[in-house]
Predict the structure.
Amino acid sequence: MTDSLRAAAGRKVVSRASADTLGAVSHLVVDAKARRIQAVVVGKGRKARLVEWEHLAGFGPDAVMVTDESALREPADDRDRAAADGKLELVGKRALNELGTELGTVDDVLFDPEAGALEQLTVGGRAVPATALIGSGSYAVVLASDDPAGAPAPTSVTG
Amino acid sequence: MTTAQIRGLPVVTVLGGDDVAEVRDVIYSPAHGAVMALTLNRRGFLAGRRKELLPSSSVHAIGQHAVMVMDEQALMPRDEARADVAGAGGDRDVLGNDVLTERGVSLGVVRDLVVLAGTSGAVVGYQVSKPGGGEAFIPLPAQLSVSGKALVVPDLTEEFVRDDLVGLGAAVDEFRGRLGLR
């Protein structure tokens, strides 16, 4: 089964204990190094709270389940606050290859909702395997160069 | 790419995806045929000078849209950078120089450097103002001697004068290949 960051935005977050809706998914935070979903940001702005992926009870197609409301926590450090502010959101972010060429913006990211592992990125209308993801931050998503050698060995002055 | 295109580019970390600085100027060594370092400004509205230098040895790649470094550790305090990198010479020692072939034909006056995109700063050509007016691009041999006022290039260079950067890209490899065969 496959889910996507774009499809997950807006999905309700429900407590398994009380069946209450606790909020809606604002976006998902990605660990670029591990190439997996790290956390879910619930709500927006100053009310935003986070749930670590490991603390989810289930990531379903209609609702994201948590055991109870205590699974949601306030942003604790700079990275949490950047995530809560939406600065780390992948969808809509500029994508650069490691040679410093812009590839377009990230349209969507596919992931496995069971394991949280990233599968594929769509960048500028083109499918890119998640294994190409090197880094992700406030300015850009960095992808490995298409060059099979993997090293900067270009032949074009302009490229 | 010309250095005019490199100035103002964001410096972005490969591992972090953050813009940690932007390029202020390019320090070039004609003897090495390469950019030695980049000087930096801060990012953002209150942009001022950053004290650190970015030595080319720490550059992952200079690209069309960003200068890539692995992480922020690539930015070095000036006094830690090697003396020849930290020198204030900049690229001004070749800008304005007349380019002469070995048989004494002027190809123009150097206006800018052409850096090979995707490298850490290999300089492969010069942008020149032609003696008759107009701009052109000439390829450079791997090494070059420079007097400070003029620079002398092989006669073969005349055949490889190009009107645009795209043409120069192809010309550089062939030019250097033919120089190597002589």
Summary: The longest helix of chain B spans residues 165-181. Residues 3-86 of chain B form a domain with the Photosynthetic Reaction Center; Chain H, domain 2 fold (CATH 3.90.50.10).
